Amino acid sequence: EPAIYLVATPIGNLGDITLRAIETLAGADILACEDTRVTRILLERYGISRRMFAYHEHNEQAAAQKLIDAVNEGKSVALCSDAGTPLISDPGYRLVSTAREAGVKVVPLPGPSALLAALSASGLPSDAFFFAGFLPNKASQRKTRLDQLAHIPGTLIFYESPRRLPQSLAAMAEVLGESRRAVVARELTKTFEEFRSAPLGELAAHYAEAESIRGEIVVCIEPPLQEEIAGEADIDRMLRDLAGQMS
Length: 247
Ligand code: SAM
Description:
Blueprint: E1 4-7, H1 19-27, E2 30-33, H2 36-45, E3 52-54, H3 60-72, E4 77-80, H4 93-101, E5 106-109, H5 114-122, E6 129-134, H6 139-149, E7 155-160, H7 165-176, E8 181-186, E9 194-199, H8 200-209, E10 217-221, H9 232-246
Parallel strand pairs: 1-4, 1-5, 2-3, 2-4, 6-7
Antiparallel strand pairs: 7-10, 8-9, 8-10
Helix pairs in contact: 3-4, 6-7, 7-8
Bound molecules: S-adenosylmethionine.
Residues 11-12, 81, 83-85, 88-90, 113-115, 159-161, 185, 187-190, 216-218 line the site of S-adenosylmethionine.
C-alpha cells in the first residue's frame, strides 16, 4: 500500500529485527536510508538486494519532497536509519511532518531503540522518563540545558559519545548533584554490553580516570527527590514565604 514506512533496524545485534521490517525492506518500491553502506550490511544478512536512495540531514528537504511525490504516485517508501528507530536522534522528522501536513500516510514499524533498551534494563524508574537526546557541545549551553532538565519528575535519558562522556558526567554531577544515581549503558545488544550504576559523582570520577572509553553509550539518571521537584504551587509558597520574611 502506498505510504511512508518507518522501519526500525538493529542497534548492534543484527538479529534484532522484526519479520515485518524484513518484509517491508524487501518489498518497498523505494528504500530510503541514512547511509546506504550501513543498510547494505543488514540487507545482505537477510539476502535482500536492493537499490537504495540516500536520505540524510544534508538533503532532507529536497529528498522529503521527492519521497512524498513518489507516495502520491502510488509507490511505497521504506525509511530506515543506520541504527534503531528513524527520527530518534536520526533523520526523518522533516519527511514525516511534511507527509502528515500533505495528508500522506505514515506507518511506523516499531523495533529497537537504544533509549528504551537502556531504560528498561537500567533499574531506574521507568513509569515516567524524559529523552533529552545529545547534550550541546559547548560547556555553557550544556549547563543551561542541564539546569532546564534538573527538576523534571522522571528518569532522564541522554545519548553520549565515548569521547565526551567524562566531561558530560562531570557537568551532570555538578548541575544535578553528585548523589543522584545514574546508569551508563554501553554497547547495548553487542558482545561487550555493559551497565555501570553509581551516583553521578562516582561515575564522573570513574570515567575521568578510565584509560580508553569505547563504543556507543546511553546515560540514564534517576528522577530528583520529591522535595526537589519545584511545581508552581511550591514557587508560589516560596514567594509568599520570602514576602513574609521581608515585611
Ligand atoms: N536512532 C537510534 C535509536 O533509535 O536508538 C539512535 C541514533 S543516534 C545517531 C546514535 C546514538 O544512540 C549513539 O551515539 C548512542 O548514544 C546511542 N546508541 C545507538 N546504539 C547504541 C548501542 N548499541 N548501545 C548504546 N548506545 C547506543
